[in-house]
Amino acid sequence: MAASYGYTVTGYADSTSAVTNPQGIDTTAVTAHKNTTGRVGNADPSTLFETEYDVLIEATPTTLGDAEPGFTHVRRALEHDCHVVLANKGPIAERYSEIMTLVDTSMGSLRFEATVGGAIPVMGTIEDIGPPTVTAVRGVLNGTANFILSRMAAEGIDYEHVLAEAQDLGVAEADPSFDVDGTDAALKCVIVANVLAGGTNEYTLTDAVVDGITDIPGSALELAAEDGRTIRLIAEASPEGVRVGPRLVPQNTALAVSGTQNIVQIETKHAGQLNLSGRGAGGSETASAVLADVGRLPSLSK
């Protein structure tokens, strides 16, 4: 996908191997090699940082607490005055002040659109409006949880049955706890809260008040429907902090998106409420957000 945007990939790594070439890598061939052998190449992953590159795209799995190995990858790139684009929520959600200090002392810059809302341009919109003019951000920020609640409401069946269906369809992971307990949505809101705070305060997951959807019975959605409402897992970042939990919302309104759709409402001082919706996760959606960030980086030649 990077080639279609006019970019050259000079290094590619997974958790156990790497392949590098300053002249450019055939990513299709690397993917085929990974599918066949389970490895992207024959080199050690650490060699990735020894090749020539302008931008590090950090897409390792999100980890809580120390945000490793993502944090170390970001630090190494910034210390070498390279740009970083994050798809990994961990470093910016769990070690925000440390990351920003590294950015301040580097010639490189940092972008992280893909960490919140997939292909939905949440961070770019906040940046364009100006974080000081945004008073709150809320929305449905996890497609797995939303799929489950939508199906529970539509079919009148309990959580466990819908979860099994979601796992069969590939919408939910074998271990769905990160999504259904509200952690994923909370991390996204923590990132937003840190940006809105502008360095005056730092938020991590421990500062968020989080409730998931695992204890919601099908009868609760039936009762909500009788009153013209439904239940959605709503995440919110505001000056009062970060909160995630099931909320009653009116049917046929913006927050009542169905299936795996996400929606983000941005409350502003001067422009009112802005609604952004779309696919909040997925390989191509995340890649489009990452590559859009690459295109926004300063002094980057294709």
Keywords:
2 domains, 302 residues, single chain, Rossmann fold, three-stranded parallel sheet
Task: Walk me through what this model shows.
The strands form 3 sheets. This protein has a 6-stranded mixed β-sheet with strand order 7-9-8-6-10-11. The chain is α/β, with parallel strands linked by helices. It is about 35% helix and about 20% strand. The protein has 2 domains: about 5-120 and about 285-295, Rossmann fold, CATH 3.40.50; about 120-280, Dihydrodipicolinate Reductase, domain 2 (2-Layer Sandwich), CATH 3.30.360.10. The protein contains 11 helices and 11 strands. Helix 6 (about 145-155) crosses helix 7 (about 160-170). The chain has helices spanning about 25-35, 70-80, 90-95, 95-105, 120-130, 145-155, 160-170, 175-180, 185-195, 220-225, 285-295, and strands at about 10-15, 20, 55-60, 85, 110, 135-140, 210, 230-240, 240-250, 260-270, 275-280. The model has no long low-confidence stretch (mean pLDDT about 90). Helix 2 links the parallel strand 3 and strand 4 (about 85).
Quick structural gist:
This protein is an alpha/beta fold. It has helices at 27-37, 70-79, 90-94, 96-104, 122-129, 143-155, 159-169, 177-180, 183-197, 218-226, 283-296, and strands at 11-13, 18-20, 55-58, 83-86, 110-111, 134-140, 209-210, 229-238, 241-250, 261-268, 273-279. The protein is globular, with a radius of gyration of 20 Å.
What is this structure's SSE topology?
Blueprint: E1 11-13, E2 18-20, H1 27-37, E3 55-58, H2 70-79, E4 83-86, H3 90-94, H4 96-104, E5 110-111, H5 122-129, E6 134-140, H6 143-155, H7 159-169, H8 177-180, H9 183-197, E7 209-210, H10 218-226, E8 229-238, E9 241-250, E10 261-268, E11 273-279, H11 283-296
Parallel strand pairs: 3-4, 4-5, 7-9
Antiparallel strand pairs: 1-2, 6-8, 6-10, 8-9, 10-11
